[in-house]
Design goal:
Elements lengths: L10 H11 L4 E4 L9 H16 L3 E6 L9 H13 L7 E3 L4 H13 L3 E4 L3 H7 L22 H12 L9 E4 L14 E5 L13 E3 L1 H11 L4 E5 L5 H11 L6 E5 L2 E3 L6 H9 L14 H7 L3 H11 L6 E3 L1 H13 L4 E2 L1 E2 L2 E6 L7 E7 L8 E7 L1 E5 L3 E2 L9 E2 L4 E3 L5 E9 L5 E9 L10 E2 L2 E2 L11 E2 L2 E5 L24 E4 L3 E2 L2 H8 L9 H5 L13 E4 L3 E5 L9 E7 L7
Parallel strand pairs: 1-2, 2-3, 8-9, 10-11, 12-29, 14-22, 18-19, 20-23, 26-31
Antiparallel strand pairs: 4-5, 5-6, 6-7, 13-28, 14-17, 15-16, 17-24, 20-21, 21-22, 25-28, 26-27, 29-30, 30-31
Helix pairs in contact: 2-11, 7-8, 11-12
This protein binds adenosine-5'-triphosphate and magnesium ion (2 copies).
The site of one magnesium ion has 2 residues, from loops.
């Protein structure tokens, strides 16, 4: 790795740095606590924490809190939780604001070196000096403003006036004296400090001036002895000013390196747009399972390890990648396939009475949680009244329909017995209400074309009470009708698919659910080294960690709306296999 290879303006600084790190890699994940993290951030988290871990190094979680107007503790709390949920442990949790005093001192140092000045230009004037033309494009002549020639003493005096509250918001800024003739716009005298008369959630009313990202980030990286400052590609041009400032104030200079952003097709990541979705009640909140915030993915039941393994599959690219959401689903499915138990679930049940079984027929059948894996089994009852899914029956089967019909028997999963339908009752609206069936104990019906899931009804002393009744099953598909909601001419809200959430109120699952619930988060022996690494950290007792595959239906988890008396399930992803077979 490249620790210690960044050429330093002052080699002494590198020695001091190495004395601290002992050559270990130090990285940081630096979110601004002004919103909830999304799937793209997971890549930044995995990159920073993963890179450090790979080299037995350390990674800070640093809240970059230099915009007090937009920031809130509820965001930093959520970010901390998500990092831990993904399985990472910060070396330290720090805040840019922890360093406001040191940063202020460095600003004075920069001024005294003649490398910063207090500027009173309006934004329009700044643009004009930067050679930005009426059409908003750069290319005009770049010129120094009158303030740039301040003496260091004058600049210091004015800066202290800024600090002491003499100027109101927007009136004065401290600007770095960089290089106006440099082709890189990130060198055109960036703002280092601005006046903001707002309270800071950590430093209260202590400061009236706040440092900018451009001033703060590199210097805090330096103070924390970060060896590799990994950031997204849009900061590529900022690398020059990052290095310029560290050298200008003569501190250790970390190595900034860039990686590509991750975007998911058909998802909205912008905080402003997410807020519109939430405040307009278009979704169930920031954690609505159809969103791609990490709190939403967690609520939807996506295991933390599945997110890590998805990012791992994509690799750390240096270009921005826009991934189709089906690729994400495929990756999650693959992860769930080997890690969650299986249950029988009937989402839209229809009663089947088995005519040739006695009224009180009761048999217990052992079912493995995961066939082929040594993770135990559970018992379900088999009785005269069972339920199957409404979609698994038609009156008359044609050649493409393999399941139950009056002219076609079907097998019952896990018991391998076959039933044939002898009658179907409909109500006055021609809705199917009940099926009468016969149970084949002698193999007379032969091998069925396929097997379907079922649950049995049973009550009474000493018997397994079955089935588990689900109050709500929520099934989701993409929130937006198109893959590019922002491209909708009527705005992205017009692109919302009103049927993207479907609710089923009568679903049933087999009684294996109770053990699945008490044993969650489900632990399956990791097969490979990657699987072990990519486990994440489910919280014991959290609803979303209760996950299972509903055979032939999809993957589900418990939703946080569940209570002791109410069971709500979310569909995590559908099953890949075509349900119609
Ligand atoms: P915004 O500009 O909307 O506030 P941000 O990207 O600046 O969003 P931060 O909280 O500053 O959000 O991000 C923290 C870190 O996560 C940064 O290093 C940033 O580069 C990285 N990051 C943000 N979005 C993505 C993404 N889509 N893919 C990869 N990394 C990302
Ligand atoms: Mg941000
Ligand atoms: Mg940012």
């Amino acid at each position: 790795h490249a620790a210690g290879t960044n050429p330093q303006a002052n080699p002494e600084r590198m020695k001091e740095h190495l004395a601290f790190t002992k050559g270990r890699v130090f990285t940081r994940f630096p979110p601004e606590p002004n919103g909830f993290l999304h799937i793209g951030h997971a890549k930044a988290i995995a990159t920073n924490f993963g890179y450090a871990a790979y080299y037995q190094g350390e990674c800070y979680l640093r809240f970059d809190d230099t915009n007090p107007e937009a920031e809130d503790e509820k965001y930093s709390k959520s970010i901390e939780e998500i990092v831990s949920w993904l399985g990472f442990e910060p070396y330290k949790i720090t805040w840019s604001s922890d360093y406001f005093n040191e940063l202020y001192e460095l600003a004075e140092k920069l001024i005294l070196k003649g490398l910063a000045y207090v500027c009173f230009c309006t934004p329009e004037q700044v643009r004009a000096h930067r050679g930005i033309k009426e059409d908003g494009l750069p290319g005009g002549e770049r010129t120094a403003c009158e303030h740039r020639s301040q003496t260091p003493e004058k600049a210091l005096e004015l800066f202290r006036e800024m600090r002491d509250g003499k100027y109101s918001k927007g009136e004065a800024t401290l600007r770095m004296k960089q290089d106006l003739q440099n082709p890189n716009p990130q060198m055109w005298d960036l703002v280092a400090y601005r006046v903001l008369n707002s309270e800071h959630h950590r430093t209260g009313s202590q400061w009236k001036i706040y440092p900018t990202y451009d001033f703060t980030h590199c210097l805090v990286d330096s103070m924390e002895n970060v060896s590799h400052s990994l950031c997204t590609l849009e900061f590529r041009m900022s690398r020059e000013s990052y290095e310029w400032l560290c050298d200008a104030v003569d501190v250790y200079r970390p190595a900034q390196r860039e990686f590509g952003r991750l975007n998911l097709q058909g998802s909205i990541m912008s905080k402003r747009k997410l807020l519109q979705l939430v405040e307009g009640n278009h979704v169930r909140g920031w954690d609505d399972p159809r969103l791609f915030t990490l709190v939403a993915l967690r609520r939807r039941g996506i295991p933390p390890g599945a997110i890590l393994s998805f990012i791992n599959e994509l690799g750390v690219t240096t270009t921005t990648t826009t991934i189709e959401s089906v690729r994400f689903d495929t990756s999650v499915r693959k992860y769930l396939e080997h890690s969650v138990p299986r249950l029988m679930m009937v989402v839209d049940p229809i009663k089947v009475v088995i005519k040739n079984l006695p009224e009180d027929y009761y048999e217990e059948i052992a079912i493995p949680f995961m066939p082929g894996k040594d993770v135990g089994e559970y018992k379900v009852p088999f009785t005269k009244t069972i339920y199957i899914d409404r979609s698994d029956f038609v009156k008359e089967a044609d050649s493409s329909f393999f399941r139950l019909a009056l002219n076609q028997p079907v097998g019952l999963l896990r018991v391998k017995n076959v039933i044939s339908a002898v009658d179907a009752k409909y109500d006055s609206n021609s809705n199917l209400v009940e099926i009468t069936a016969e149970y084949d104990t002698e193999g007379k019906l032969g091998k069925p074309k396929t097997y379907i899931q079922w649950v049995a009804e049973s009550t009474g002393n000493g018997k397994i009470q079955s089935p588990v009744v689900v109050d709500e099953v929520r099934e989701f598909r993409q929130l937006f009708k198109s893959d590019n909601p922002s491209g909708n001419p009527n705005g992205f809200l017009a692109d919302i698919d009103e049927n993207s959430e479907r609710v089923f109120k009568n679903a049933m699952i087999d009684v294996g659910f109770y053990e699945v619930k008490s044993r969650s988060p489900w632990k399956v022996e990791a097969q490979t080294k990657e699987e072990r690494v990519l486990e994440g950290r489910d919280t014991k007792g959290s609803p979303e960690s209760v996950r299972f595959q509903g055979l032939r239906v999809g993957y589900f988890c418990m939703d946080k709306d569940s209570t002791d008396n109410k069971l709500v399930l979310n569909q995590i992803v559908s099953l890949k296999e075509d349900k119609q077979k």
